[in-house]
Amino acid sequence: MHPVIQGRELLFTLVLKVGWAASFAALLVRFKSFRTLVFTENRDPNQKVKLLLFLVPPLAIGIMLRLIGRYSFFDLAMEGSFIMGLIGGRIVGLFGGSLISLLPFGFHEWLCPPMAALTGLLAGVIREGIPEKEDIWHFGPFLFLNIPQWLWKLVRYRKGNWAMLPLFACAAFEVGWIELSYFVPSRWLFAENPENVGYIALVVLSSVMCVAMIVKIWNNTRIEMNLEQNQQLLLKARMDALTSQINPHFLFNTLNTVSSLIRFDPDMARGVVLKLSNILRRLLRKHETFVPLREELDFIDDYLGIEVIRFGRDKLQIFKEIDAETLDAFVPSMLLQPIVENAIKHGLAPRLAGGQIHLRTLRRDGRLTIEIEDNGVGMSQDRLLEVYGGGIGISNVHERLRLLYGDQFDMRILSREGEGTNIRIDIPELAVAEHVAR
Questions:
Q1: What is this structure's pTM?
Q2: Which end of the chain is more exposed for a tag (fewer CB within 10 A), N or C?
C-alpha cells in the first residue's frame, strides 16, 4: 500500500481510538456505583471484583470488534490494562489484563495475555509507588507539554512531579508492545506497525492520550462530586451557625426568667427548671435538621409555660388551633421558638394586659401552613424591616427556610401598629418527608 495512504489511515485510526477511549470513560462514569468504586482509594476484595466487572466487558468487546470486524481502533488492550492497574492497583491490573486478552489468545495471539497482565501489574506497582494518590489524577491529555518545566524544576530544585511517572510509563509500555511485535510472528501480538519513527511517535502519543482522556473524564466527575459534597458541608455549617445564633439568644432570656423566679417563688422556679431541662435536652439534639411538628409544639409548650409564669396569665394567653393531620409532619427544628419569642418581646411585652398568641396549623394540597399571630402593639414598616430583617430571630428563620427549601417556601409577615403581627409560613410537606427519608 502507498505510504501516504497508509499514513492517513493510521492517523484516522488513532483519532478514532482516542474517541473510543473517551466514549468508554464517559459511558462508565454515568453509573453511580462505578463512580463510588473508582473514587475509593482503598478497596476491599469485593469492590475490586465489582471494578473488574465494570471495566473488563467493554474492553473485551472492543478487542472482539477488532478481531471479528477488523476495527483496530476499538482495541485498547494495552491502554485498558494500564488504566486498570493505575486506578485499581496490582490485583485489578493483573487479572483485568489477563481477562480482556483471553479472546485474542483464542485467536492465536499467544503473547497478548502475558503482555496485558504484565502491563496491568506494573501499572499497579506504579500506583502503589506514588506517595500521593492525588497525583494520579493530574495525568491529563496535555501533561506532556509540562515536560520542559518539569525538567527545569528537577535539575534546579530537585523537585519532581509524580504525575510524570504514569506518562512516561504509558509511553514506555506502548513502545515495548510495538518493538516486541517486530521480533515475533505477526499473529502472536497485535500492535500498530508504523513504517518510520514519526508514525511510531504518533502511535505512542495516541496511547498516552487514550489513558489521559480516561483519567481526565473520570477526574472531572470526581471534582464535581467533591464540589457537591463541599456544598453540602457548607450548607450544614451555615445551618449549624444559624442554629447556634438562635440557641444562646433563647437561653439568655430563659435563664433570666429562672433567676428572677428563684427569689420570690421557689416552687414555681422548680417547675420552670423542669421545663428548662426539657428545653435543654431538646437543644442538645442539634444534629436533627427536621423534627415532627408534634415535638416542636411540645418544645413551644415548655417555652411558653415559662413565659406565662414570667409575664402572668393576665398578660399572656396562648390559643392553639392545631390540625391533627399536621402533628406528624416534619418541620425544621427550632422553627417556632424564635417567632414566638419575637412576638412576646416586641409585640406583647409593651402591653399592660390582655396579650394573646394564636398558633394555627393547616394541611392542604400537600403543603403545611403554620401561622403565629399576636395582638401586640404591632409596628410600622420601617420598624418591621429593622426588627425582622436585621434581628437575630426572624431573619435566621427565613434564612434557614431558604437554605432548606430554596424557592419552595413562602413566609409572609403582616403587622399593623396597635393591632398586632401575623406571620404565615407555607412549606411543602411532602418534600420535607422525602428529605427525612433520604
A1: 0.59
A2: C
